[in-house]
Structures are given as structure tokens and as C-alpha cells.
Request: fold
Amino acid sequence: MALPTLTYAQIFINYIGINIDYNNQTLTQIMNITGNQLVIPIYQYCSQGGYVTVNTYLDPLSNLGITSAALIMYNGSIVSTPINYSPKYVSANVNCSLPIYGLYLSIGSYGQYPLEALVIPGSNMTYVLTQGSMNISIPLTPGLNYLFALVRVISILPARASINNYLTAQLNTEYSNINVGSLNTYAEITTYVTYSSNVEITTNGTTYIIITPYYYTSISSMQNLILLSPSRPIIMLTGAPWIKYSYSNCTPINPGIPGITPWTSYLSYSPYCSINITTMPVDITFVDTSLQKLTCNNVFITTQNGEILSLSGSVAINPAMDRVIYLVINGIRTIGIYLDSIPASALTIQLPLVTHSGITITDELGNPVDAPLYLYANGTLLMLTNNTCVYPGNYSLYTLVNGELMSLGTRSVAQDSLLTIPVFSNYTLNISIPQQCPDLDLNLLVKYSGSQYVIPLNGNLRQEVYIPNAIIGSYIQVYLVGNGTLLYQSTLLINGSKSTSNVVLNPHVIDFTPVDLLNNEIPTATLNIGSLYYEGPGKYCVPTNSSLGMVIYGSDVYIVNITGTRVFIRVWTLGNLGVKSLLIIASLLILLLIISIIIRGLSKGGGSKDKYIVIN
Reply:
């Protein structure tokens, strides 16, 4: 029996949250990320003109990130309008007077953000570029993690400058008079945020670049923190929809740095600041491919910490800890569900589990069959019901027909599968043998569906064979065996239109006649065909597929053709000489002697005495 091909299947669940504000209305939805590119259509919300605001976000613990964001038009071209974004958050204000189709996002792998952290500004880095390009690496600070950097690009007009790497978004642009030494000049000041540790800037005139890096450390190490920078740290609460914060002795601030997520807030650090965190569970509902709730009494959920949950209702997990859950089917951990992104407090996940109601069973005539179905899974036979679920795969299937378990072989099982099982009938064979086969011990051999039955005839030339639960359209082989040799065989197709068939087994019968030179039958001559030996003249049954035999007499062997109905052979012998044979020979000698005397007398009476006849 073949084992099912379902072991350790993996399902990755990556969601992205979307909020669309238009005409004083708000649309909130969750989309599943299935590739590294995602287009969010918004054209339908621009039908009345004005502006549409789109906010898109991943949760901070996801290992996915938004690597670029842009508006795309109907013809596929990209709109140059800058969009503010972070690897976890995009905010776009769309002008509906443009032929905008949607928001285009590139999705890539990106590390998670801390839920709570201390953000420490680094020292400003200042550069001057007059022409060409400059690649600037943001230094790492021991004991801290790089978060992002604010980049101010001051271009002395008419100079222009740009940043050419991804994970960089423009925050704002302003024009102002600035003092450069003793000279007052007009400049374009553009502020960017970059999440990359390398910045490449290109300019065609005098440009000043001021980079302020930001680093973070986990808030859990706050008590033992040794600040490596004189800058005053900021408490960053990234959070998520499923995390609630409460704090005391803390001052909310607006540091002018971008939001990491829609839920990011900043507090002024103080040794007396107290923050309390409440993690709300995420409710996960599992449905099948037809969006119906799954109720599987043989499937359970296990979390990373070993907790076992039932699949019969909504499963509540701790999203800060249980980012991987497993489905256990029949006691075997089978499906790993990796929750890379949970931007909501409730999820609905489709699982392609199959129940009995998802499978249609018919016979080969197309008639529906209400038969129990069993699958060989994980070493046991599992009865598939509407409350029993299995993962799609190839299984050894069985069905219960007339109280007997019948194998259907290895079949593919999936949602909306159509399984065809044979049509069954009780069948009777009326077997007759019109020819007598003396000197042979006759047996019937019946083969059907991998089984065979041997029935001794014991002189009875008629036999009734009953076959229960015969499969319509299958074949039965019936053999007539004599002394262990196959004499005749017949193959019968089981017809659904009748329950009885007459089978005639008619072996090949020959009339064997061996004679000597004097035409006397020889009772000791032996006819040999395969393993069959017949001695003396008579009518004998021979295999229908044989064409040659051997006649053995003494040390002589003769080859004979047995395809006809009569085998007549003259053996080169006089046989056993009896009285009759001697009288015949004596009469022949006397006759020859008389003829010789007559001829000799005639020769003396007329003609020369030198002429004579010699009989050899």
C-alpha cells in the first residue's frame, strides 16, 4: 500500500492591510501577498474626482518589506509623484485628475522592527559635492542597530541633486535663502528618509548633504543601557493592532522623524517613565476552499510553545510569540502555517483540506454511490466523513461494498475530486464440458480479481460457479485442467445486462490409431503430448494450443501432427506374430513356390534350356 504524499506541506500566509479614504468614506481590507509585486487598484475610488488617500501597512514582526512604492497609470507608466513609505508602511495622497490605475508596490525580504525600542540619534554627517556622484556609507555603532537616516540635500540653485537607491523616500521639499560663508544664496532643500545603509547622491552643481542616522536598542535592556551617544534617546512604540500601550510619567513628542508603521508613537525618555503592554490575541478562522468553516475532528493546531488547539472554532494565538503554527492530522504534524504578516486582529485562512462532502463518488455508469470511503494514511485506515479532514495527495483508497473492503488502488484526493468505483453484481457461471476425457483427472480453475478457485469435477461434466460482488466490465478466466495440463481456456467479460453466463469448455479430442506393417493395431504404442501419455488406440483429449505430439514404440519415436481429429500412424514393425500371422506368411510362401514351379515347367517345354527367371 502506498503512503500518501502529504508529509510536511507548508503554507505561507502573508497579509497586507489597506485603508482607502475617499469622499468622506473609508474602505478597509486585507490582501494576501502572493509574489514580489503587488498592485492595489484605486481607480474606482477616483470616479468623483478629488483626492484619495491610501495607507498600506505590514505588521512590524513580518519578514517582508516594501522595497519601493509608486503610482501606476493605465498605460503602465510610473508617475513621478514622490510617495512616503517605510519597509512596513506606505502613505500616498492620489490626485484623481490623473489617469491613475493603482498603487504599485515591490515586496522583498526585510527584517522585523522591534515592537518597543529606544531610538538614539547619531551625530550629523556633512558632505559637499560639486559635480558627479558620491556613495556614502552610514557607519554602524557598536551595541546599537541601524534604523534609518534622515538625509537633507541642499542644492544651490540652479544645481539639482537626486538619491538613486531604493528604500529611500522623499519627505518634503522647501526653498529658502541660506548663508554659505558670507554669501546669502537661494537653495532647494529636500529631506529624504532612507532605510538603506548606503546612500548614492548625484548632482550637477554645488550641493550640501547632511545625514542624521538613527539607531535603536531593545527597550527590554533599558535598565542596563549604557548610552554611547550624548544625544537624548526617544522611546519608540511601534506596536500593532493587537498591542495596546498605557504609560505614565512619559511625555509624547513629535521628533519630526517618519512613522515606521501606522501605530508608531514616540515618547520622551525619562528614568521615571513607566510603560505597560497588553497583547490582544489574534483570532484565526480556518475555512475550506469554498469559504465554509472547517470542522475536523481529526485535525488539531499546535503552537510553537506546544499548546494544542481545536480546529472546530476560531483559534486564538499570541501574535508576538506564535508566528508559526502547525496542523496535526491523525497525530502527525503535517502542515506548517507561517504567519509572516498579521496586520489585523482577526484572520481568515483558507486550507485545502478535503472531507467526504468534497468528493463525488459514482459508479462507472455515472450513478451516484453512497459508499463509505477509507484512506490509508500514516499507517492506518481512516474513514473519511464530513467531519474528518485530510490534506490533498495521493492515497491508497478502499470502499466498503456488500460488507467487504475493496481496494480502489492509489487515487488522487483533492477538493471536488470525482472518484469512480466499479459496478458490482452477483454472477453465476454455468460451465459444461461436452467431450469426455477418459483416463484424466479433470479440474476447473477459475481466476478472478487476483483470486483463483480449483474445483474437482470427479466425472461431473457440468458445474455451477457462483461469484459474489463481481465487477461489471471485468474479466473471468476459466481453465479446464487434466492431470495438471491445461486442456482448454475461456475468458469471459462480465456483462451488466445479465447475471448468468453459460460457458462451454470444449477440449480438442483426437482419434489415435497406431498400426504395424500388416495393419494390425498396436496396443503398446504410446502417444505423448507434453506431460500427457496415452497408451494404445483410443479417443483422447489434448491441449487446444498443441500442434505436435510423439508416438513412442520401443526405442523408436515418431513425430505426429495432432491439429486434426485423427492421428493414424503405421509403425515399422510386424508386431507380435500370432497363429493368424504365421498362416498368412505360410500361405504366401506356398503361393510363391507354386508360381516358381509353373514358370520353371513352362521354360522346359518350349525354348532353349539356357533361359530362366530368378526371383530375388
